[in-house]
Amino acid sequence: MEVRDSGLFQVAYSDSALQELHRFDITIGSGRKAQTFLFWRNGKYFQLPLSYFILTNSWANSPGFPPAYPKFDRMIPSTCFGCHSSAVGIKNVSMEGLHLSEEFEKNQLVYGIDCERCHGPAAEHVTFHQEHPQEKDARHITKIASLKNQQKLDMCALCHSGLGAPQKPAFEFKPGDALSDYFFPDFTRPEKTAEVDVHGKQYQLFTASKCFIKSDGMNCSSCHNPHNNERDQLQAFSQRCMSCHKADGHTFCKMTTLPAAVLSKNCIDCHMPALPSRNITMLTRGQTSPTPDSMRTHLITVYREETKKFMAALKK
Ligand code: HEC
Ligand code: HEC
Ligand code: HEC
Ligand code: HEC
Ligand code: HEC
Ligand code: HEC
C-alpha cells in the first residue's frame, strides 16, 4: 500500500518492477466488521485485493482472493451496490460470453442507505408538502404503520437475508413489495436453522426464533430503531427484551444463579451471542488456520456454552 500525491493506492511489484497500481476510489462497509475497497476503470468497478478486518485489526486478502498473487480483475456488479448504496447509475448492460457485463456512469454513486431505500421514492411527497405546509397528514408516501407485518419484515430482509439469486434489481424495491418477487426461492437453504450462517441472515434466524413464532406481530423494529445508531447499547436492547419478558412474569429468565439486576443489563451475550461465521474467514500473515469473523446470531435461544463464558468473564 502506498500514499501518493493523488491518493492511497494498492500496488503490485514483481522483482521491484511495478506491475499494477490502483487507487482506493470507493469504500464499501461502515467498518463495523470490515472495509473493502474498489477502484474505477473504464466504466467499471473492481475490488482491490486487500481489505481491512476489525476482528483482527489487520489487513488481509479480500474474501475469496488467492493468497499466491495479487488479483486486480474482480469486477463488482450492481448487486453489491443494491445492498450497499442508494443509487449507482447503470449506463449499459450487455453479455460478454456467459457473463453479464455492466457499465456505470462516473460519479453517480449515492453512498449509504438513505431514506428512500426504506421509504420508497419521495419526490412527490416532498413537492406536495412544500406546496402545502399546513397539511400535517403525510401524502404520497407509504405509511409503514399501515403495512402488514410480513411486509415490514420484507423491507429489511431485502438486504438482511443473505445473497440470494436476484430476480429484479433491489433498487426497485418499495415498502409493501414482497421479498419473493426480488429473489428466486433458495433451494440450498439448510434444513436446520443452526446451520444457517450468522453472516447476513438475520431475517432467517430471527423468524426461526420462539420469540417471533410465539408472539404476534414482532419484527425488526421490535428491537431496532433504524433511524438511530444504537450500536453496542446492550442495556437498551435488553430493556426491549423485558418489554415482553417482564422480571415478575412467567417468561422471565430461568437463570436463577444471577441476581435479576445483573441479568437485566445484558440479555444479549447469553441469548444472542456473537458466533463465528463459516462464510467469512480471514487468514493474516503468520497464521496457519483462518480466523472466522463473528456476528450476532439472531436465533434467540439458550446457549449453554456462551452462558459459561459469560459467567467466567463476570467472575474475572
Ligand atoms: C438497501 C439495503 C438495506 C436495507 C433495506 C436495510 N438495511 Fe440494514 N444494513 C444494510 C447494510 C449494507 C448494513 C451494513 C452496513 C455496514 O456496516 O457497512 C446494514 C446494517 C444494519 C444494522 C447494523 C448497524 C450498525 O452499525 O450497528 C442494523 C441494526 C440494520 N442494518 C437493521 C436494519 C433494519 C431494521 C432494516 C429494515 C427497517 C434494514 N436494516 C434495512 C443494508 C440495508
Ligand atoms: C433502514 C430503513 C430505514 C431508513 C434508512 C429510514 N427509515 Fe424511516 N422508518 C423505517 C421504519 C421501519 C419505520 C417504522 C418504525 C416503527 O414501526 O416503529 C420508519 C418510520 C418513519 C417515519 C414515521 C412514519 C411512518 O411511515 O411510520 C418517518 C417520518 C420516517 N421514518 C422518516 C425517515 C427519514 C426522513 C429518513 C432518512 C433521513 C428515514 N426515515 C430513513 C425505516 C427506515
Ligand atoms: C443482499 C444484500 C447484500 C449484497 C448483495 C452484498 N452485501 Fe455486503 N453486506 C450486507 C449486509 C446486510 C452486511 C452487514 C453484515 C451482515 O449482516 O452480514 C454486509 C457487510 C459487508 C461488508 C462488511 C461491512 C461492515 O463493516 O459491516 C463488506 C466489506 C461487504 N458487505 C461487501 C460486499 C461486496 C463487495 C458485495 C458484492 C460482491 C456485497 N457486500 C454484496 C448485504 C449485502
Ligand atoms: C414481542 C415480545 C418479545 C420480545 C421483544 C422478546 N421476546 Fe423472547 N420470547 C417471546 C415469546 C412469546 C417467547 C415464547 C415463550 C413461550 O415459550 O411461551 C419467547 C421465548 C424466548 C426464549 C426461549 C427460547 C427457546 O428456544 O426456548 C428466550 C431465551 C428469549 N425469548 C429471549 C429473549 C431476548 C434475549 C430478547 C431480547 C433480545 C427477547 N426474548 C425479546 C417474546 C418476546
Ligand atoms: C429481539 C431483538 C432483536 C430483533 C427482533 C432483531 N434484532 Fe438485530 N440485533 C439485536 C441486538 C441485541 C443486536 C446487537 C447489537 C450490538 O451489538 O450493537 C443486533 C444486531 C444486528 C445487526 C448487526 C449485526 C452484527 O453482528 O454486528 C444487524 C445487521 C441486525 N441486527 C439486523 C436485524 C434485522 C434485519 C432484523 C429483523 C429481521 C433484526 N435485526 C431483528 C436485536 C434484535
Ligand atoms: C448469564 C447468561 C444469561 C443471561 C445474562 C440471561 N439469560 Fe436467560 N437464560 C440463560 C440460561 C442458561 C437459560 C436456561 C435456564 C434453564 O433452562 O435452566 C435461560 C433461559 C431464559 C428463557 C427461557 C425460560 C423458559 O421458559 O424456559 C428466557 C425467556 C430468557 N432466559 C430470557 C432472558 C432475558 C429477557 C434476559 C435479560 C433480562 C436473560 N434471559 C439474561 C442464560 C442467561
Question: What can you tell me about this protein's structure?
Answer:
By secondary structure, this protein is α+β, with helices and mostly antiparallel strands. Among the domains are: 1-112, no CATH class; 216-316, no CATH class. It contains ten helices and 14 strands. Strands 4, 5, 6, 7 and 8 form a five-stranded antiparallel sheet that branches. The longest helix has 12 residues, at 149-160. The mean pLDDT is 92. The structure holds heme C (HEC) (6 copies). The site of one heme C (HEC) has 17 residues, from helix 1, helix 2 and helix 4.
Question: How is this fold's topology laid out?
Answer:
Elements: E1 2-4, E2 7-14, E3 17-23, E4 26-28, E5 34-41, E6 44-47, E7 50-53, E8 58-61, H1 78-84, E9 85-87, E10 90-96, E11 99-104, E12 110-111, H2 115-119, H3 123-131, H4 149-160, H5 202-207, H6 210-213, H7 234-241, H8 260-263, H9 268-271, E13 274-282, E14 291-296, H10 304-315
Antiparallel strand pairs: 1-2, 2-3, 4-5, 5-6, 5-7, 7-8, 9-12, 10-11, 13-14
The structure holds heme C (6 copies).
One heme C (HEC) is lined by residues 238, 241-242, 245, 251, 253-255, 258, 263-264, 266-267, 270-271, 302, 307, 310-311.
Please state the oligomeric state of the protein chains shown: single chain
| DSSP helix fraction | 10-25%
Order of helices and strands: EEEEEEEEHEEEEHHHHHHHHEEH
How confident is the prediction overall: mean pLDDT?
92
Count of distinct strands: 14
Radius of gyration: 23 Å
Roughly what fraction of the amino acids lie in strands? Answer: 15-25%
CA-to-CA gap between the ends? 40 Å
Secondary structural class: alpha+beta
Main sheet makeup: 5 strands, antiparallel
Give the low-confidence spans: none
From the spread of the alpha carbons, the general shape counts as globular
